[in-house]
Amino acid sequence: MRHLKAGSKLGRQPAHRRATLRNLVTNLIERERIETTLLRAKAARPLAERMITLGKRDSLHARRQAAGFLTTPAATKKLFADLAPRFSDRPGGYTRIVRTGWRIGDGAELAILELIGSELKKKEKKSKKAEASRENEASSEK
């Protein structure tokens, strides 16, 4: 029987596993996109979604629960000020996991854990003529 077998232990003791997941969720809230292993992303996803749900409640009790889990006050502030209003009309599913390949060193499967709505913005390509003119202007000023 497979009772109580859900969830990955991530090769850590319980306190270390909790600290790892707290750090992952805090970084996800602060940066809105993190790259980690697939197993860690799958383990951190429900915790991140629970934090956003707490942010949507916006009560003193919810703020204290979020502050007790997140490791920085800045992450708590961003959760309640920015992220909760962004997801106010969404009933769930605030995160996305995108597989990105395998790590070179140990072959672990990597994934990007990101918040919905924080898509990559493509950088504008600089033309070679514009770069050359900037370099000429910089050298003439000296």
How does this model look, in words?
The protein is of the alpha+beta class and 142 residues long. It has a single domain, classed as Ribosomal protein L17 (50s Ribosomal Protein L17, Chain: A, Alpha-Beta Complex), CATH 3.90.1030.10. Helix content is 54%, strand content 14%. The protein has a 3-stranded antiparallel β-sheet with strand order 1-3-2, with helices on one face. A hairpin with a 6-residue loop joins strand 2 and strand 3. Helix 2 crosses helix 4. The longest helix is centred in the middle third of the chain and has 20 residues. The termini are far apart.
Provide a concise account of the structure shown.
This protein has 142 residues and is of the alpha+beta class. It has one domain (14-141): Ribosomal protein L17 (50s Ribosomal Protein L17, Chain: A, Alpha-Beta Complex), CATH 3.90.1030.10.
Topology:
Elements lengths: L13 H18 L1 E5 H20 L2 H10 L3 H14 L8 E8 L6 E7 L12 H14 L1
Antiparallel strand pairs: 1-3, 2-3
Helix pairs in contact: 1-2, 1-4, 2-3, 2-4
The best one-word shape is extended
Give me the CATH superfamily.
Ribosomal protein L17
Classified by CATH, the class is Alpha Beta
Order of H and E elements: HEHHHEEH
Helix content: 40-55%
- Largest sheet composition: 3 strands, antiparallel
Number of strands: 3
| Total of domains | 1
Number of helices: 5
Classify the fold: give the CATH topology.
50s Ribosomal Protein L17, Chain: A
Features:
142 residues; alpha+beta; 50s Ribosomal Protein L17, Chain: A; three-stranded antiparallel beta sheet; 54% helix; 14% strand
